[in-house]
Amino acid sequence: MTAFEPAGSAGPGGSGGSGGPDAPDEPDGSDRSDGSVGSDVGLLAPGRAGSGAEAATGDSAFLRALLDAEAALTRAQASLGLAPDEAADAVTTAADAARFDVRALALRARAGGNPVIPLVADLSAAVGDEHSSYVHRGATSQDIMDTAMTLVAVRTLDLVLADLARTERALARLARDHRDTVMPGRTLTQHAVPTTFGLKAAGWRSLVLDARDRVRAVRDGLPVQLGGAAGTLAGLAAYGAPDTGALVDTYARELGLVAPALPWHTLRTPVADLAGALAFTAGALGRTAADVLTLSRTEIRELSEGAGGGSSAMPHKANPVRATLIAAAARRAPQLAATLYGSVAAEDERPAGAWHAEWEPLRDLLRLVGGAARDAAELAEGLQVHADTMRLHLDLTHGLIVSERLSAELAPVLGRARAKEVLTRVARRATSEGRPLVELLSEETELKDVDLVDLVDLTDPTQYTGSAGALTDRALERR
Q1: pTM attached to this predicted model
Q2: Which residues are catalytic?
Q3: What is the SS3 string spanning the chain?
Q4: What is the pLDDT averaged over residues 125-146?
């Protein structure tokens, strides 16, 4: 089996028919190059299965990006008079991913350590003898791999940004709708002081916007790679490029990427920045998931997913599946990012192993975050808020949730030390006797002059939310 099929078998394409940024590998997002060895269709990865990110990062998507990079290089040279226009047309037409066998390329990549080497051979054969010398001219394998990697990243990040926008809009609605919905605030797993669900949702949204800003900044700064064998662009100059900077600029414009100041074969800032933005995004979404998982517990049930998942053994269950999958992604992402950060320490002008180590963890990270962003949008859009349950839970400690307020209010009356002593005593009684705090306070002789109405107001948790409403409003001003 060869990696190139005759022209007639070509499908729809982007750069010369090689598929647009959002074109899926298959309807289910998987690669089906060789059923005899099986394909990774996401059986063990429900978080990314069926997502746009899965399709945008499959083997066929990477192949499309590699071919797009090769075709753009020839077109850039032709636009500067360094190659015939006919050659650019021929390479662009031949760079059709549907005409190449991904599995065969993968097997042949073992000989040289990367798939560009066999791909260049097959693309040259597809172009024909007349124009084959203009394929990959002046470039090295890492130029094409790095450029393809950034292309795949840009195409995937566009999908992530769209889902983050959905998530942000849904969280903004929740924050507005529940601006004054009071609930227990919890610290170190215990009731602390009252807060509002609106403020909680506004906090979730703030993290999503932080993630959006980081992803957008990275996406808009991802560069092409073009340096030649050792980052000097000597090969391009040897083929007649009088101004290699102009060629790099043109190459970048062809692909919609940024022209770097220097070749970055061993200057891996773009990959490190991408890793950081993706890991942060997974964590930001994971923060929402963590709250949903806690607050949707049976014994709490202040929140629930709009359409919970079922159980294979227990018909009554409605599991918070979206939050579960997001939480799983948040736990995996930092380790994947660590591998990419580890590759920053690359030796020489082009390293052995460092850039090779990036390919799989980067794809996994893009898939994880893409799936998590999709799940976060669905979670936020369908989240059910049980305000009545939140209100009931405010009374679980018999009024102790406002002890901070009472301490501040009683200190001027009794003195700070005495107020603390009294509150400590009545707090223990409230817990042991299960009686309301306001009732116990009314029995304290030192408080006999305090009006009962005042005590009721002071112990009302819905009247002690501080600046929660104003903070929510301020958070929602951010666009």
Answers
A1: 0.90
A2: 311, 350
A3: CCCECCCCCCCCCCCCCCCCCCCCCCCCCCCCCCCCCCCCCCCCCCCCCCCHHHHHCCHHHHHHHHHHHHHHHHHHHHHCCCCCHHHHHHHHHHCCHHHECHHHHHHHHHHHCCCHHHHHHHHHHHHCCCCHHHCCCCCCHHHHHHHHHHHHHHHHHHHHHHHHHHHHHHHHHHHHHCCCCEEEEEECCEEEEEEEHHHHHHHHHHHHHHHHHHHHHHHHHCECCCCCCCCCCHHHHHCCCCCHHHHHHHHHHHHCCECCCCCCCCCCHHHHHHHHHHHHHHHHHHHHHHHHHHHCCCCCCCEECCCCECCCCCCCCCECHHHHHHHHHHHHHHHHHHHHHHCCCCCCCCCCCCCHHHHHHHHHHHHHHHHHHHHHHHHHHHCEECHHHHHHHCCCCCCHHHHHHHHHHHHHHHCHHHHHHHHHHHHHHHHHHCCCHHHHHHCCHHHCCCCHHHHHHHCCHHHCCCCHHHHHHHHHCCC
A4: 97
